[in-house]
Design brief:
The chain is of the alpha/beta class. The chain has two domains: 382 residues, no CATH class; 132 residues, no CATH class. 53% of the residues lie in helices and 7% in strands. It has 23 helices and nine strands. Strands 5-4-7-9-8 form a five-stranded mixed β-sheet. The protein has a two-stranded antiparallel ribbon with strand order 1-6. A two-stranded antiparallel ribbon has the order 2-3. Helix 1 packs parallel to helix 18, helix 9 runs antiparallel to helix 16 and helix 14 packs antiparallel against helix 18. The chain is globular and about 80 Å long. The relative contact order is 0.14.
């Protein structure tokens, strides 16, 4: 009993450590987060007369894979400030990932304590790229996979796990379609192994019903996005970014196999400029290797199954290994990019890494408990390191609040990130989409926006999206074709190139703080002066 209380106390400490970085400062260094937070502001405050959201945008109530995130933000936003609501969702991700991993391990008859190896993976590269809705789908994926294993093992097809599996599978889709497809691959693999152990067409048919609700959601969205005619009256997406289009026009882009292998480590964990996260990941990998050498074991077969043939028994007892291999194989077999979405296959790596503890068949008892304790130390080190990077990012952002107070209420702001933040504590360009704070704080519009992507439930109204330079190339800003559409220009760093010259010639600084400047067209700037 004493040991159990010690373990519970350690678990609470570890989960608190995983959540701490998300509360270490107001601004989180996640690349796409301002985009998602800005569009969540649109969804939550669409009818607020203090904003001009209804003028710029139209909400799309149809089924899309990101309604999970935006719907949750809308619900929480009815009672909480938007930034706090978002912080709570990210905290749920940080706490939910190791808890869901523990549930997955128990579903396969493994020791829950091996889930300690998953805590440093909370701070994976996808987090710092700001893939908010995708990140929230990760613990749901682990939970759904554990429920699927239990459902397939249930003697009754209407067992207690089936309704929960139906609900969680639908949530996985509503947070991210790519995660849902990967979950489908894993479940098909598990079902095929179970069928080999003793089952047939009737067995399959009796156990597939929990997937029908999520398949209906997925099929509806897939038909509309890839097969059916486009919906008139709404702009599909911004310039420089194509829509998905038909199935034949996805434009899949694969990388050379050498690049796929060389960049694998940094695509799991590798967002910090000083590479401290990668050193921690190496320590974690060494611990896991030691655990694999001493605790590797086959998965137990269900007691109710009849004695199958040897090859079938071997297949069933190695289903955890097959799951890990399938998740690893999905990385080189998937494209890096399809039209409208980048960084596709690297997202699969985090699932493969989180699934690795499934191969640890022996419990973490006796001297093997030292590996768990060492894993907990590495996990706390990873949490402290992530917290330190968030705190350092606050210093990089500096006195942005002073400039933010001058953002035009309900106006349109073009972000010109001459400094995209890559030189700070986090290398994944955290200042690239910073102009979206206009949506969050002032209820206005920006230049580049995710509005119009097939997975996003927000579209521009016809003719309401302003022209803008490619967000990675602010020096391509052209006043003659773009300047008149904007009320202000948010600049990070020192303007340079042709775009910087155009800005200086036609606009004036109205607010300056640290490396931030807010510019307005010269006529408006003169009117703004007292």
């Amino acid at each position: 009993m004493r040991t159990r209380w010690i373990e519970r106390g350690a678990a609470v400490l570890l989960l608190a450590g995983a959540a701490a970085p998300f509360w270490a400062g107001r601004y989180l260094p996640f690349l796409d987060l301002p985009q998602h937070l800005g569009l969540a502001a649109v969804v939550t405050r669409y009818h607020d007369p203090a904003t001009r959201f209804a003028q710029y945008y139209a909400l799309d109530p149809r089924i899309t894979p990101y309604w999970g995130y935006y719907g949750a933000m809308w619900l929480l936003g009815q009672a909480l400030p938007l930034e706090l609501a978002n912080r709570l969702l990210f905290t749920a991700y940080a706490v939910g990932t190791p808890l869901a991993s523990a549930y997955l391990l128990a579903s396969f008859g493994r020791d829950r304590r091996w889930a300690v190896f998953t805590i440093p993976l909370v701070f994976n590269t996808n987090l710092f790229l700001g893939f908010g809705s995708f990140l929230l789908s990760i613990p749901l994926f682990l939970l759904a996979l554990g429920l699927a294993e239990r459902h397939l093992a249930d003697a009754r097809t209407t067992g207690p796990h089936a309704p929960a599996l139906a609900a969680v599978a639908a949530l996985v889709f509503l947070f991210h379609a790519q995660t849902y497809l990967l979950l489908g691959v894993c479940v098909l693999l598990l079902a095929a192994v179970r069928a080999c152990l003793g089952g047939g067409a009737r067995w399959w048919a009796a156990r597939c019903w929990p997937w029908l609700p999520s398949l209906a959601l997925f099929g509806t969205w897939f038909w509309r996005s890839f097969v059916g005619p486009a919906r008139p009256g709404l702009e599909e997406h911004t310039v420089h970014h194509r829509t998905y289009g038909g199935v034949a026009g996805l434009g899949a882009v694969y990388e050379p196999f050498r690049t796929v292998l060389e960049r694998l480590p940094e695509r799991v964990i590798g967002a910090f400029t000083d590479r401290s996260d990668q050193w921690i990941a190496l320590a974690l990998l060494a611990l896991f290797a030691a655990a694999a050498m001493t605790a590797y074991g086959r998965a137990p077969l269900p007691a109710r199954d009849p004695a199958p043939a040897r090859w079938r028994r071997l297949l069933g007892s190695h289903r955890c290994d097959l799951l890990v291999l399938a998740l690893l194989a999905s990385y080189p077999l998937s494209p890096m990019e399809i039209s409208g979405q980048w960084y596709v296959n690297p997202r699969h790596l985090v699932f493969a890494a989180l699934a690795l503890p499934l191969v640890l068949g022996h419990p973490a008892r006796g001297w093997r408990s030292a590996l768990v304790v060492s894993g907990a130390v590495v996990a706390l080190l990873a949490c402290a390191n992530a917290r330190a990077k968030v705190e350092a990012f606050q210093r990089q952002v500096g006195p942005f609040d002073a400039v933010a107070r001058e953002l035009p209420p309900g106006g349109r702001v073009l972000g010109l990130p001459f400094d995209n933040g890559a030189g700070g504590p986090v290398r994944t360009w955290p200042l690239l989409h910073w102009a979206c704070w206009e949506q969050i704080l002032a209820g206005g519009d920006v230049g580049f926006s995710f509005a119009g992507l097939p997975s996003i439930p927000v579209r521009y109204r016809p003719g309401m999206q302003a022209p803008h330079p490619y967000e990675w190339r602010p020096e391509q800003f052209d006043w003659a074709t773009m300047g008149e559409f904007y009320d202000a220009f948010l600049v990070s760093g020192s303007p340079r190139g042709r775009g910087g010259e155009e800005l200086r010639r036609n606009a004036a600084v109205v607010a300056r703080a640290g490396t931030w400047t807010l510019w307005k067209p010269k006529e408006r700037a003169r009117r703004a002066r007292p």
